[in-house]
Amino acid sequence: MYADDVKLYNSSSNCMILSNDITSIHTWSRDWLIPLNMSKCRVLHLGGQNPRNCYYLNGVELSKTNTCSDLGVTITSDLSWSEHVACITRKANKTVYLITKAFGKANVKVIVALYKIYIRPILEFANSIWSPHLVRDNDLLEATQRRVTRLPFGQIRPSYQDRLKLMCLPILSRRRKRGDAITVFRALTDGNSPIRYLFPLNTDGRTRGHAFKLLKEKFRTDVRKYFITNRVFEFWNSLPAHVVSSKNLTEFKIRLDLHQRD
User: Fold this and answer.
1) DSSP code of 59?
2) Pairing between strand 73-76 and 63-65?
3) Which of 232, 251, 246, 255 is nearest to 189 (CA)?
4) Strand, helix or coil at 170?
5) Contacts of 63 (CB under 8 A, 6+ apart)
6) CA distances to 42, 134, 173 from 137, in Å
7) How far apart, in whole angstroms, are the C-alpha atoms of residue 244 and residue 262?
8) Smallest Cα–Cα separation from 70: which of 50, 31, 44, 92?
9) Cβ contact 143:132 at 8 Å
10) Beta partners for 74?
11) Rounded distance, CA 109 to CA 149, Å?
C-alpha cells in the first residue's frame, strides 16, 4: 500500500498551519507503516512576494524546487506557463515524428484524424488553466499544428491558412478561446460546479446584452490579468443572448461555433 502525489498547500501567511499539516501527514504515515520518500518531497513557493519559509519533515528540512507537475500540468514558482508549453510541444512533436514514420505521406483525411486523436489533445489538455498570453508561447504551440498540416503535401504546398481551410482546422488560440467559453458555460449552468464562485455575474440592470454578463474583476498582476476569469471576460460578455442561453452544453457548442464562423 502506498500514497502517491499527495500535496499540501496554504497561504504563506499560514505557514504554521502548513507546518502542522506536514507533521500530521508524517505521523499518519508512520502509524500506518507507509513511510514517506524524503527524496521525492519538495516545497514549491508560488509568487514573487512569497517569503519562502522553510518546512521540515521529521526534523529534516524539505528541499525547494521551482517547478512541479500536477495532473500533467507543469507549475512554476513564478506562475509562468512557458515551461509547460515547452514541455507539451516537445511531447507533441515526438508524436508527430512517430506518425510521420508510421504513416508517411497519408492523405488529408487520415492525417486530420491522427492529429485530432493523438496530437491536439496533448496541446490542449487543461488549457483553461494554463492558456498562454506570450507571443512566443502561442507561436510554439501553433508551430506544431503548422508542422502537422504539411504532412499530406509535398514540397509545393498551399499556405498555412489555406491548409487549415482544406483540413477544416482552426488556429489553436481560437480553440482555446472556445474552451474558455465552454468552461464558463459549464460553471454557470451546473448547479454543483466547484468553480461557480469564480464567475460572479454583473447584476447591474443597466448593462446591455444577455443576462449572464460577468462582473469585471480587479487585478494588479499579469498572473491575475490572464487568469481565465479576466481572460474570458470580454469575449463572454460580447456573445449574443441566444448563444449563452442555450439549454445544454451541446447546443451551446453548436451555437458558439456558428457565431465564431460568422
Assistant:
1) T
2) unpaired
3) 246
4) coil
5) 41, 42, 43
6) 27, 5, 11
7) 16
8) 44
9) no
10) 69
11) 11
| pLDDT tens digits, 196-206 | 999 999 887 66
Instruction: Quote the cell numbers at residue 131.
Output: 492558456
The reply to whether the predicted model has a pTM over 0.85 is yes
Distance CA 112, CA 148 (A): 8
pLDDT digits over 115-146, tens only?
Answer: 999 999 999 999 999 999 999 999 999 999 99
CA dihedral 105, 108, 113, 117 (to 10 degrees): 60
Q: Cell 459549464 identifies what position?
A: 186
237: alpha, beta or left? (left if phi > 0; alpha if psi -120 to 50)? alpha
β partners of residue 44: 65
Quote the CA–CA distance of 73 and 125 in Å, as a whole number.
8
Residue 1: Cβ-neighbour burial (10 angstroms; 0-12, 13-18, 19+): exposed
Partner residues linked to 65 by β-bridges: 44
